[in-house]
DNA sequence: TTGACAAATGACTCGTTGGTCATTATTATA
DNA sequence: TATAATAATGACCAACGAGTCATTTGTCAA
């Protein structure tokens, strides 16, 4: 388990620097100070490694942002905090962000493409719910364009500080993007992306998670965990899924217990969405 | 010469579909109906091929846009026409656009990176001169942010129609982006990219072409060309570089002769910049 | 100390692919 | 037609790198 983490860390460094295809398994294992065979004890293949990396960090980032956004009551702060948290994440995990941007369009591995599309749609959804909450009905006609503008901002501004070594003033960046977004949201009148166009692009729909899937996820995680508050909380949350016995406050508390454990972020995110907290 | 073109066309198709790394030389030659050896009569390596493709199309697109923008007098139309021409180019050369987006970050080949940075800076320059012409002094503090917004728009909106098979209404798209750009240009007050930050990122400066370089370019092109008006015009333009004997009108005329020949677009673009037409 | 089990090693296999070159086909010239 | 020059071919080579597996090393309970 520790070995796996070591490989992921070291590999990420190399991938960010050289790209996935040009980094050999040998390089990774040399850099880790382990043998090539040891690599294949932790990962079935080189592809599985990058898939694991993507999941690991996207889960971390997505669920973190989602939590932050859902715990801000004041709409005036919302957008600012969102941008701030987003770029803070990219900055903190800059190696991952580089990898993610560089490898955005690996055409070969089917599973990889599906995964990327999944997270792309996921973030679009996040943007959309943010927009709807902030501007409500008034932006109905232009909301899909807003999503794309936000995506554009994220893209260009993040590659700016990722690939040039420039100092990064997160506060100004967030402020600046808040202003841009507000200007567009409040005054744009000519949308390009109509609801129909949007639907055309929604083809590979983002499925909802079922109760059974959630239970499986929890079972899996529980096996990997040591005895701890997190593990106990997860087990209780599983009980709750089967037969809801606890009041909402308890469920929220249990989720809070679990939220900060890096291994549980994804599950806690899914559960929060499931319970619509 | 014809063979080279055939290879470029067919290879572009395959690259757009499968990516550069996963397309083998064998696949390319099979698709062209020629032998593997024949490939290496036209290109020294597989890398040289992609470099040639990038140059070929970027020159085409860049010089075309530049020409259009420089031949519009009415500022009211300018931005619209710019966006329209830009996306029309991407649409027309969609295979190239796909390749370009997909391979934006090949870390391995040094020459490739330099080339991409060069064209990136080139387009930034184009955006900047457009912005300065349209909005003048008033946008001085926010002009670099405007560049990045435009880059962001180009990026997200083009991948939208490149990778999803959706119908494309160029007019609405251009209109929509014009509105967005105008809104931002006229009301943005919080820039993120300060002049100093901009300078930090300008490190690999875009060199000016010298008279000698231009003469070399022309000599090279002249050798490749059949007897034609274009060839004669180029020779005269070379004379003019050495000892300027003709009035401006003549030079302009000569450039006009050369402009539409696909092989001469780049030179005509460089000359126009040199003479500041 | 021993022996059973698990973890780790790295030499090796094997498929792939960019690039070469001796040979053959084609065209131009005398 | 003969000869030279040029174009084209595809079998072959060498390098590389993902993944395997027989063997060694380490661990721990009896």
Characterize this entry briefly:
Chain A has helices at residues 2-18, 25-32, 36-42, 46-70, 75-92, 94-102, 110-135, 143-163, 170-187, 195-201, 211-224, 229-242, 248-259, 265-275. Chain A is an all-alpha fold and 277 residues long.
Average pLDDT of chain A, rounded to a whole number, is 88
Total of domains of chain A:
3
Multimerization state:
homodimer
Distance between the termini of chain A: 32 Å
The number of helical elements of chain A comes to 14
Level-2 CATH architecture of the largest domain in chain A: Orthogonal Bundle
CATH topology of the largest domain in chain A: Tetracycline Repressor, domain 2
The CATH class of the largest domain in chain A turns out to be Mainly Alpha
Overall geometry of chain A comes to globular
The number of strands of chain A is 0
Q: Could you give the order of the helices and strands of chain A? A: HHHHHHHHHHHHHH
- Estimate percent helicity of chain A: over 70%
What does it look like?
Two copies of one chain form a homodimer. Chain A is mainly α. Chain A folds into three domains: 1-43, Arc Repressor Mutant, subunit A (Orthogonal Bundle); 47-201, Tetracycline Repressor, domain 2; 211-275, no CATH class. The first copy, chain A, is built from 14 helices and no strands. Chain A has helices spanning 2-18, 25-32, 36-42, 46-70, 75-92, 94-102, 110-135, 143-163, 170-187, 195-201, 211-224, 229-242, 248-259, 265-275. The model of chain A has no long low-confidence stretch (mean pLDDT 88). Chain A binds chain B through residues 17-19, 21-22, 101-102, 105-108, 145, 148-149, 151-153, 155-157, 160, 164, 166, 169, 172-173, 175-177, 179-180, 183-184, 187-193, 197, 200-201, and chain B through 17-19, 21-22, 101-102, 105-108, 145, 148-149, 151-153, 155-157, 160, 164, 166, 169, 172-173, 175-177, 179-180, 183-184, 187-193, 197, 200-201.
